[in-house]
Amino acid sequence: MEPKRLKNIRGLTDRRIDALLTLLSENPTIVVSGAKIAKEIGVTRGTVWRWVQKLRDLGVNVKGHARTGYHITGIPDILAPKLISRRLLNTTFWKHIYHFFKVESTNDIAMKLGEEDEAHGAVVIAEEQTQGRGRSGRVWSSEKSTGIYCTVLLRPPISPAQASLLTLVAGLAARDAVGEELDAAPDIRWPNDLLIQGKKFCGILTEMHAEPDRVNYAVVGIGINVNQSRMPAEIAGIATSLRIESGHIHSRLEILIRLLRHLDRYYNLFLSSGSQPIVRRFAEVSSYFQGKRVRITTATESFLGTTAGLESNGVLRVERDDGRIEPVISGDVVEA
Ligand code: BTN
Question: Using CB atoms within 10 A as the burial measure, which of 157, 226, 231, 292 is most buried?
Fold first, then answer.
């Protein structure tokens, strides 16, 4: 079922670790002997022991040892492909899920998969990124096992001019996934930063390979700060995590599953009905849609204005102080 090239990606999580995790998760209260696990997943008892240590390092509470057997106390919050896949069976994203404990950037892996003809709907997930990338060449802080670092590979039948809509689609999906988790619904700052109390906790980086008239493939990378107890000092004033805001730990696994389900729903809505319902939904949920005083910074200039809705291709309209309407295709938006 899985493509052959899967084995050639450096750092990809061994499918047998995935199997070990799933086995332990399925039998949380039962002590499973090291010998039985070894036999079931096809490795030596020594390897089981090493992998159990690895899972412990990642915060999975595995009790016991090789002689007596192992069991876990509670479902671990590791984004294991098998645990995710079985809950996405009715969506585009169940089939090819690539998991890494550590990777430079999930977007880079997804771009490579795109080049290698991997199918629409492949998902790349990492527990940690060493070179997580944000928009405009910024760094995306990607601490181990605290956030969601996920990229989906899409092959949308659209032109590059419509690609900003994919970014909106992903922002709406992330908003709905997180909204179900919090008391207050997050805001979306165009195009797709998610904010709680004005601070950013989710960003999306869309990259693509395209011809002038069609997108060959697009990768949509989504980063969500979930369980960080504090943000790095240099961004603490503008960034937050769900844990910081709610005061408790959240399940990354559950949020990721919801994110991919909503992404599937909005993406299919976009393909079947075009941009209109996407723009309409954005208008409903984003305080930045209309009438927000903002500073816009593009590659060439920075100016003040007031937001005045979106064009049908997702471009933001901003009314300058002299009354001219400026279409903003890409750039940074901050409340002024
Ligand atoms: C931004 O708001 O600047 C975009 C941040 C996007 C971060 C995600 S994390 C998963 C994927 N891999 C990356 O290197 N970046 C995106």
Answer: 226
